[in-house]
Specification:
Length: 466
């Protein structure tokens, strides 16, 4: 019987199916961080039980950590307490922790792939919605709540209802200046921020297969922003090449055995999806958001929708959103003055992202009115950036290369955008106050963010490219 990629992995991990209810799903790898783990550990202690399989858990500090002077004590009290609690809990329960100062420390969804911990065919969870990132390797990966974090710690299993299945095919060749972030922002603008609710989404097609692993991770990372339970891409030679030689990737005979299995992880030709969407890559241009959810996106040459272009039910939220952003219906965003540029987050903080930006800004200077923060996703990325001289390019351009962490993606640390200021951000969410109280966020690709940093306004990057 023909099966989808999702079904092949799901069926090998179901421990038990409850009649008329959810399935007990075995979890291969559990990532934890300082924000959603303290309550789970407290629950285990209250019940007097331990962590069932500590070797299958990997911890890091990322959300709350400062991105300058990480060698000093954390100033914000809540952040400091959460990071200290993670350190204490991991030591008590025998869990590997990549904390501040560790060469593997970084954003949880950056370190898993770059260390070879994330592997095709796995089930992966984390108390963080953007766990869907790991689906780029052909895994079922999704975010869970704090009570579920405790459940996985105690049992290495989770109660889950099988989602419906969707495939989004992107075929053809991408235009100049268009990268993976533009692909996913375009898809979300097309189907809305709730268009994939209740679905596991597989991304396929020639344009997806042509992408690097880092670009694929960007797409799967933001699948959650259209309501999907998870996003995934079938593993292939690009996947295997990326993984080979990583610190925790299989080696020798085990590598050969794994490759044989991983090569079977694809959707069979006549497998069935509940919904299928086809997109022509040529229709995608550099994207930017104008509102307060990631579905409120337009091509940079377009305009904020007019009120008569908006669905009747959505008009109140649309009007509230553009009022918050200080935009007018029908207006162009291109040319809008920008105050901050943030290049980072689990969406776009990998070495490929930094190389892309460095290549674009080399020999250029940032605009005087813009403050630019570039935050690498991990100590490994930071190390590579320094070894390759990317830090020098940024320094000469007036960009501020900081230390690893989630940073201004969510303003849960010291990196906040001031009230009323406009930030072009390579992160994944533009909710009200996400980057700081009353901050205004426009989501874009690293290339578009770099263009805005140089010009000081929202810019069509294609106009600055050879």
């Amino acid at each position: 019987m023909a099966k989808t990629l999702f079904e092949k992995i799901w069926e090998t991990h179901v421990v038990q199916t409850i009649s008329g209810g959810p399935s007990v799903l075995y979890i291969d790898k559990h990532f934890i961080h300082e924000v959603t783990s303290p309550q789970a550990f407290a629950g285990l202690k209250k019940r007097g039980i331990g962590v069932f399989r500590p070797k299958q858990i990997v911890a890091t500090a990322d959300h709350n950590v400062p991105t300058i002077h990480q060698e000093l004590p954390i100033k914000e009290e809540l952040s400091r307490l959460q990071v200290e609690a993670l350190k204490k809990n991991c030591a008590e329960f025998g869990i590997e922790l990549y904390g501040l100062g560790h060469p593997y420390q970084g954003i949880v969804h950056v370190i898993g792939p770059e260390l070879g911990i994330t592997q095709p065919g796995m089930t992966i969870v984390c108390g963080d919605s953007h766990t869907s990132t790991h689906g780029a390797f052909g895994t079922i990966a999704f975010g869970i709540g704090t009570s579920e974090v405790e459940m996985v710690m105690a049992t290495q299993c989770l109660l889950q209802t099988k989602p419906k299945l969707m495939r989004i095919n992107v075929d053809g060749t991408l235009n100049k200046g268009v990268v993976s972030k533009d692909i996913i922002l375009y898809i979300i603008s097309l189907i809305s921020a709730s268009g994939a609710t209740g679905f596991a989404v597989e991304f396929a097609g020639s344009a997806i297969r042509a992408l690097s692993m880092e670009a694929r991770m960007t797409i799967c990372n933001m699948s959650i922003e259209m309501g999907a339970r998870c996003g995934m891409i079938a593993p292939d030679e690009i996947t295997f090449s990326y993984m080979k030689g990583k610190p925790f990737a299989p080696q020798g005979k085990e590598w050969d055995e794994k490759i044989a299995y991983w090569s079977t992880l694809y959707s069979d030709a006549d497998s069935k999806f509940d919904k299928e969407i086809n997109i022509d890559a040529a229709d995608i241009e550099p994207m930017i958001t104008y509102g307060t959810n990631p579905g409120m996106g337009i091509g940079v040459s377009g305009h904020v929708p007019l009120l008569n272009e908006i669905n009747e039910k959505e008009k109140p939220s649309f009007e509230k959103s553009i009022q918050y952003m200080g935009f007018e219906a029908g207006a162009n965003i291109k040319g809008k003055k920008v105050d901050y540029v943030f290049i980072g987050s689990c969406t776009n903080s990998r070495i490929e992202d930094l190389r892309m930006v460095a290549s674009f800004v080399k020999g250029k200077k940032k605009a005087d009115n813009v403050e630019v923060w570039v935050v690498p996703g991990s100590k490994q990325v930071e190390k590579q950036a320094i070894e390759e001289g990317i830090n020098k390019i940024f320094e000469e351009a007036g960009f501020n290369l900081r230390q690893p962490g989630c940073s201004a993606c969510l303003g849960m640390n010291e990196d906040k955008i001031p009230a009323g200021k406009y930030c072009i951000s390579t992160s994944n969410r533009n909710f009200e106050g996400r980057q700081g109280p009353n901050a205004r966020t426009m989501l874009a690709s690293p290339l578009s963010a770099a263009a805005a940093a140089i010009t000081g306004v929202v810019t069509d990057v294609r106009e600055l490219m050879p």
